[in-house]
Amino acid sequence: MSTLHVRQIATHLRNEYEKEHWKSNLDERNNLSRLLAFHAVGMALTDHPDSSTYNVEITDGAEDRGIDAIGVDSANNIVVVVQSKWRHDGTGSVDLAGVLKFVNGVKYILDIDGTGLPPCSKEMRIAVQTVMQTPGASLKIIVATTATDNLSSEVAQPLEDLLGILNDVGDDNKIAEYSVFTQSVLFRAIGSNPHTAIDADLQLLNWGRQSEPVAAYFGRVSAREIAAWYSAHGQELFAENIRVVLPKSEINDGIRSTVLSEPENFWYYNNGITVLATKIEKALAGAGSTEAALLRLRGISIVNGAQTVSTLGSVLKAGHEAELNMAYVAIRIIELSEEQELLARNITRYANTQNVVAVQDFAFLDAQQHRLGQELRLLGYEYILRSGERPSSKDAAKILDVRQVAVALACATGNIADAVLAKREVSRLFDRESGTYKSLFNPSVHGLLVQRAVDVVNAVAKTLDKEAAAASGIRSGIAIHGRLLISHLVLGDIGRNKLANPDVDLSDKFNKVPSEARRLLDVIEQNFPAGSYPANVFKNKARCDEIVSGV
């Protein structure tokens, strides 16, 4: 599906930058290469989110010396240089000649007088000179391409040699680094749902520390402090949790009741919270005591205890600060780097198995689900994975939830048993150890297939809603209870391969979905077993097989 991903990357770049940076005298490939270079500068500076300090220019042209964009972050003394290569077919990699030209261009930039710079504005020349003359300045060298393959060792060698020259400073302070943004890197970056990194300070009481296998702190914390976290950051605190805040539940009511009526006993009654942090910094003050420790937490996410935290936040909002000051919450904070994603997901999973969590919520831990979320986002859809998660989109037609998607895919597998299971017991579609779940959500299933399958199932449902309202008796019952079987037949007629192929225009097929759904309803009604109850028939695979044999 590399060509599909290239198209999605192109759509994103055009939406973001076409108005300001598209040149009418250039063809599409060259224009997209320019936009890619501009975008890559921003990607290289993501560790420094204040874009007001950036100065970015596209330098692509006949005299560019292999450099297609330059970016300067004057606040952090960083210069970024980019070479971009656009491949419509998404195959291959960058060639040696292109990299050699790029390396020579970078060497020109390192002439501090600026005479070697490619065509750019006077302001950019001054900005580059100023940064490069500043102690501690750094240079980021970026190769960005929609090709799938990384650089071969032969092509990468000139870049490695350049780094060897630039970083030969006799200590650990590197001046320069290079990165290659291949198609997969670009796709993940533009398809990801950005979350603001959250840092927080915490006074941890009666604390302890564990060093192996990863660093972790545990103890108790004032409920007032945790409530303030929620007031400041809201649901962003739960970015890595398998579910977010359930708006109304007995658990929330119990938490609220305890903190208001027995705040001194809250620590004893409540299970506490689990926090993941990318870094934990402990202040030196009071280092010899376990009474209290001041911690600074970087990049936090609460992976267990969302209901506790949100309810404490609502109590604070209601003005019950005195009660919160009397209550304490058990807490453990685990330090994990971004490279420890698997361990983070396992902690999230097992920390929540003690609570009542819908089986579908565990789909949030599946990497395939997040990949689909990225692909659907690039198609203009928001994918909701967790119970209680509130969509940001105001357009209901552009919101898909994981259960809706699972049902549509079950109707599109070509296996009638999956459609029957979706009707009989939809929660079993989310048993991650079963063959059914793996047939629905696997690397071969892409966002376009999902979107089209959902569109067909929705069109069938809309048609049969009207038929059910206009009919009575068996026909109405079939329209209500047989819609997944009918969706299975309609999708089977279109064909799964066509649904997944971006080069196949399905407009005519989609336009005929309502009439095909009505035709199938007519046929099934004529052959429906006498004396049978539709709600039961469509939950039985053998009986559904009999019905399909007569269609």
Overview of the structural elements:
- This protein is α/β, with parallel strands linked by helices.
- It contains 24 helices and 14 strands.
- α14 crosses α19, α17 packs antiparallel against α18 and α17 packs across α22.
List keywords for this structure.
14 strands, single chain, alpha/beta, 551 residues, 24 helices, seven-stranded mixed sheet, five-stranded mixed sheet
Please sum up the structure shown:
This protein has 551 residues and is of the alpha/beta class. Helix content is 48%, strand content 15%.
Mean pLDDT: 84
- State which percent range the strand residues make up: 15-25%
Unreliable stretches covering 5 or more consecutive residues: none
* Main pleated-sheet profile: 7 strands, mixed
* End-to-end distance: 34 Å
Range of helix content: 40-55%
Count of alpha/pi helices? 24
Structural class: alpha/beta
- Global shape: flat
Strand order of the largest sheet: 9-10-6-7-12-8-11
The number of E-state strands comes to 14
Q: C-alpha Rg, in Å?
A: 28 Å
Secondary structure layout:
Elements: H1 2-21, H2 28-44, E1 54-58, E2 69-73, E3 78-85, H3 96-109, H4 122-132, E4 138-145, H5 153-166, E5 176-181, H6 183-191, E6 200-210, E7 216-222, H7 223-233, H8 250-261, H9 266-269, E8 273-277, E9 279-282, E10 292-298, E11 301-304, H10 306-317, H11 321-326, E12 328-335, H12 341-351, H13 367-378, E13 382-384, E14 399-401, H14 402-412, H15 416-424, H16 435-440, H17 447-470, H18 473-481, H19 483-494, H20 496-500, H21 507-511, H22 513-527, H23 534-537, H24 541-549
Parallel strand pairs: 3-4, 4-5, 8-12, 13-14
Antiparallel strand pairs: 1-2, 2-3, 6-7, 6-10, 7-12, 8-11, 9-10
Helix pairs in contact: 1-2, 1-6, 3-5, 6-13, 7-10, 8-10, 13-17, 14-15, 14-17, 14-19, 17-18, 17-19, 17-22, 18-22, 19-22
